[in-house]
Amino acid sequence: MNDPRPIQNTNPDHEVDVVTDTDTAFTEPAASAHPGHNETYATLVWRRFRRSVMGMIGLVLVSTLMIVMLFADFFAPMDPKFADIPFSPPDVIAFENPEGEFSIIPYVYPIGDTGEFDPVTFQPISGVDKSNPTPTGFFVTGAPYYLFWVIPANIHFFGSTDGRPIHFLGTDKLGRDILSRGIIGSRISLLIALTVVALTTTIGTLVGITSGYIGGAVDGWVQKFVEFVLAFPQLPLYLALTSLIPVTAPSNLFIAFVIGVMAAIGWAQLSREVRSKTLSLARIEYVRAAIAVGSSDMRIITRHILPNVLSHVIVAITLAVPTIVLLESFLGFLGFAVKPPLISWGLMLQDTSTFSVIGSYPWILTPVVFVLITVFAFNALGDGLRDAVDPY
């Protein structure tokens, strides 16, 4: 048995601190309660990610885009199919009432004819019409829609309180509101991008891990097939395959075919990256120890290799989404991605096909801003995650 009495100093020339069981009981928890000892890998990644200013900006923008995509009809101030004046310029927003007094809720002043004519061209001069302002507000009643395609609703986040049409970004060649169509179009563009990335990530990860872990002849044949897929020129192949769909095909079938074509070609690069990481992980000591004790291949892949590959896969996802968004916008501009009556950013850019339209109505280029914001948001998020996951 341990002697509970304190240890006494038997040598009077040297001083020794007295240590008791009570002192030990109070000192041990203090040492184990250090805040850095219990941090998980996810906590460390989040702590490093918060230091990245661009990464946090990207996270906020991506979260906002996801919310707008889910509740697009609620955030759209107008019915995207409502036709008004073609090529109408953006309305003027001012925080003052018609009397010139400051107002918290902004007023929308439409652009109309001033009654004056240009002295050279004798064309009517348009300007701000302050005689007939449109009051605005939040959570206003507007065009009816179905929330999540099931729940009927007619409340919009922002819009006119008297029901008159407002165009914050102007109208297109058919008089449809560009802002509303851009918000609704985010649903199709981002849905295509997220679906394609989900498919390519799943296929590429499975093929890469399987090829790298099994090795041998299987790895050789799989890599030959991957090189065969990567050898195709992607853009001509996209155009050739999407042109096989007849013009009279339903829009949903056309989108499904486009998603299938993008996913069938886009998984190969990720599989090669995952394979290289799997080859390096398979030689690590704890994986060899798991093989030595008789663990099954499925357990080794799911418990030891896949968790270490996921960090790279997550970063690859955030960097692949803007690539698909740009590709969909380009194909939509050429008429190979989305067909009316569906709306996407690429389809909206078809109105900018002529230089005369861009020169006369520059606001028609607004869908480019939606694409740029999306690409910047996901790239910033991906860069921040890449630095947080692998700071070295």
The CATH superfamily of the largest domain bears the name: MetI-like
Work out the strand percent: 5-15%
Question: What is the rounded distance between the termini?
Answer: 52 Å
Which fold name corresponds to the CATH topology of the largest domain? MetI-like fold
Assembly state of the chains shown:
single chain
Radius of gyration: 31 Å
**What is the count of structural domains?**
2
Overall geometric form: elongated
Question: Strand sequence of the main sheet, in spatial order?
Answer: 1-2-5-6
Explain this structure.
The chain has 392 residues and is α+β, with helices and mostly antiparallel strands. The protein folds into 2 domains: 86-171, no CATH class; 180-389, MetI-like fold (Orthogonal Bundle). Helices cover 55% and strands 12% of the residues. The chain has 13 helices and 6 strands. The chain has helices at 21-32, 41-49, 53-70, 72-75, 178-214, 216-230, 234-242, 251-281, 285-292, 297-334, 345-348, 355-360, 366-389, and strands at residues 92-96, 102-109, 111-117, 124-128, 134-147, 151-160. A 4-stranded antiparallel sheet has the order 1-2-5-6. The model is unreliable at 1-36 (pLDDT under 50).
Tell me the layout of helices and strands.
Layout: H1 21-32, H2 41-49, H3 53-70, H4 72-75, E1 92-96, E2 102-109, E3 111-117, E4 124-128, E5 134-147, E6 151-160, H5 178-214, H6 216-230, H7 234-242, H8 251-281, H9 285-292, H10 297-334, H11 345-348, H12 355-360, H13 366-389
Antiparallel strand pairs: 1-2, 2-5, 3-4, 5-6
